[in-house]
From TrEMBL:
One GO process term, biological-process aspect: rRNA processing
Gene Ontology MF, one: RNA binding
Any single GO CC term annotated in Swiss-Prot or TrEMBL for this entry: nuclear exosome (RNase complex)
Exoribonuclease phosphorolytic domain location: 16-78, 82-146
UniProt KW keywords: Exosome, Nucleus, rRNA processing
Name this polypeptide is given: Exosome component 5
Species of origin: Chelydra serpentina (Snapping turtle)
InterPro entries, alphabetized: ExoRNase_PH_dom1, ExoRNase_PH_dom2, ExoRNase_PH_dom2_sf, PNPase/RNase_PH_dom_sf, Ribosomal_Su5_D2-typ_SF, RNase_PH
Length: 166
């Protein structure tokens, strides 16, 4: 891997050592970051993203994806596009809830998390826990793409606040 930057993601739990759950999440976040980073501009470089879980109120993967994107932006690394994480929960009736709490995730029939690109709202990552139909999956993707607009606006506002301070 000498022709492009190597990306490493470390997801640290609130207490203890990382387990299988964290290692799985690290891989998902790393693949998403590699998809948008212009690593060829930085050959023979290592990019390490360390994410520390301070509290888990639900939607942890989406929150981790958003934190990783904000960290890459803050570091000034060149990217093809920004990305954001959105989690959807399907209840027993098939109703879609966005950004579910930990309690709502446990009660949900299915929990779906997506990474959405800022360019054309493309899906970069999709992970599902629990059964859902193809129609429900499509509805969740559409809901996540709509919700991503608010997250990208939050990114803009955060960067504007950071650089408007003198």
């Amino acid at each position: 891997m000498y022709d492009k930057a190597t990306v490493e993601v470390l997801l640290r739990p609130k207490v203890g050592l990382p387990g299988v759950f964290e290692k799985n999440r690290e891989q998902l976040i790393r693949k998403t970051c590699e998809a948008v980073l212009l690593g060829a501009l930085h050959p023979r470089t290592s990019i390490t993203i360390v994410l520390q879980v301070v509290s888990d109120a639900g939607s942890l993967l989406a929150c981790s994806l958003n934190a990783a994107c904000m960290g890459l932006m803050d570091a000034g690394l060149p990217m093809k596009s920004l990305f954001c994480g959105v989690t959807c929960a399907l209840d027993a009736t098939g109703a879609i809830g966005l950004d579910p709490t930990a309690k709502q995730e446990k009660e949900a029939r299915a929990v779906l998390t997506f990474a959405i690109s800022s360019v054309e709202r493309q899906v970069l990552l999709s992970t599902t826990k629990g059964p859902c139909s193809v129609e429900e999956l499509q509805q969740c993707i559409a809901a996540a793409q709509r919700a991503s607009g608010a997250i990208f606006q939050f990114y803009r506002d955060s960067v504007r606040r950071k650089y408007s301070k003198t």
